[in-house]
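Re: the 219-residue chain
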Amino acid sequence: MSEQKEIQPMPEGPTAEEKEVRPNKIKPQTEAVPIRVTDKRFWVTEQEGEEDVEELEKKLSDRDKQLDEVRASYREFRANAEVENQQARERIRNEYNKRVIQATGEIVQEFIDIFENLERALTSKGNPSFKGLLEGVELIRNQFRAVLSKLGLEEVVKVGELYNPELAEAIAVVEVVKQEEDNLILEIVNKGYRLNGALIRPARVKVGQVKSTAPSLSG
């Protein structure tokens, strides 16, 4: 006869002993845990590790103090630089104003003699002749011309020169017969001037134009 194997029943659930052995689930921590720096070198004791951390914290504190000192020095340097720049600007402005006044004084001084000559001519006693008056006015004109020339003033165009629209304004066109007078300045109504090479006033002139090409002035 064959031996019959005994069938063991399946366990319905964990036994009480298994429940006691099975670890409980770890609940997550909600509170912040302070971080502690620990030196894991085997030759360093716990006390030495704490001393190293304190030394590092002291060095960081010293570096922060040095950084604050550098920032304070930079702010002080910047403030001093702004004050020096302001003082330099004031010195330059004062020097500029001083030179302008000096230059103006020199220019005015050039006209004092002319002004005094004009006053003497107007306050002279007696009844001067027309010729003497004309000579006095001519003398004053020559003095004015010399002073203005000394300051760099010069006329830009002359009668008989070729018309240049960059230096003069043609206010009228005059019909001419001669071909050589075409586009020439025939008359200067108002003189034009340059000061030290720069045009300060264009001349106003009358320009000649050959009759056959001259525009009709009546229309």
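The chain has three helices and six strands.
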